[in-house]
Amino acid sequence: MARRPQIPNHQMNARTARLASLLSQAEICLPIYLERTQGLSHEPKGIRRSEMFFFYASVADLKPARILESGRARAQSTLVLARLFPQASIVSLESDASSPDVAIATERLRGCPNVECRFGDSLLLLPELVAAGDVVLIDGPKDFRALKLAFRLLRDGKPAAVFVHDLWLGSPARGFVDRSVPSAVLSDDPEWVQRYASLDSSRRVAPAAPNDLHRAYGATMGCFRGGDENYARRLLQCSAAQLIDRARETVRRIRHRPAIVRPKDFESVPPDEL
Ligand SMILES: C[S@@+](CC[C@H](N)C(=O)[O-])C[C@H]1O[C@@H](n2cnc3c(N)ncnc32)[C@H](O)[C@@H]1O
Predict the structure, then answer these.
(1) C-alpha span between 171 and 87 (Å, rounded)
(2) Taking the CA of residue 147 as centre, how many other CA atoms within 13 Å lie in the half-sphere pointing to its CB?
(3) Distance 155 CA to ligand 1 centre (A)
(4) Which atom in ligand 1 lies closest to the alpha carbon of residue 123?
(5) How far apart are the first and last CA of the chain?
């Protein structure tokens, strides 16, 4: 297995600084988050509470005028966004107009005047829609397709930040982020999990060993800030990584090897599998 390339110190510092600022912002944001999401039920496929709090604490101080969401399903994240950002306009995109989730989402979003629901493929719609200062949340498409969409949007310099959901530890797309996008901050960071996994369940979180960056937690949200990287370069690198991953996947199938599965919460992934 390939070893993880070392990220240079100055790039590591960029992530450390972003994380430190997020953690201090989170302390301020927690009471508002709890108040605004109080009593909300949770639907299957919905983004976890600790991950939506990660989103909120990352961008609350930006006071975004508009949030674009891709992948609505039963509108868990949409509803949470509508509650957390009552002054913002939330535009929610969904590609599957014939899903039974549509009626559930419509019913749940009744009474959310700041939400506009649209149908269509975000790969086409988001690049047309995005404007300066928007914050974007991508929860469908997934994996490399989601990352490429994020980098396309960020390359053009408009969004303040793009979040990508489902970057779980051990997945090929996550491996790319860890190797090649040093400024990205992730919601399975041990410090974040230690403080905020209690939003998801009452299960006690055993302290992570110092510098244990290999412990999985949930589907995992990644935050990519506008201007933090050369996103045109990241887009090219991501396309190359996707091609290599497709080739590996083909070999794996030919050899009847098992598919990579998402690790359980708090499971440690050996560094040589990352
Ligand atoms: C995991 S679900 C979203 C869950 C939702 N964010 C929540 O928290 O309840 C993913 C959704 O993304 C949609 N999707 C997948 N690819 C898409 C695309 N290219 N454009 C828009 N929506 C897409 C799927 O149809 C599915 O409903």
Answers:
(1) 36
(2) 29
(3) 23
(4) 19
(5) 9
Distance of CA 30 to the CA centre of its chain: 19
**Which pLDDT does position 11 carry in this prediction?**
62
- Tokens standing for residue 92: 């929610």
Q: Token pair of 153, please?
A: 């949007």
Structure tokens at 155: 């390359």
Question: What residues does ligand 1 touch, defined as CB less than 6 Å away?
Answer: 43, 45-47, 70-77, 93-96, 121-123, 139-141
Q: pLDDT tens across 223-267, in order?
A: 999 999 999 999 999 999 999 999 999 999 999 998 889 999 999
Closest to 157 in 3D by CA, of 56, 221, 230, 90: 230
Domains, the chain: 12-273 (3.40.50.150)
Q: Name the residue of 78, 79, 122 to mutate for ligand 1: max ligand atoms within 8 A of Cβ.
A: 122
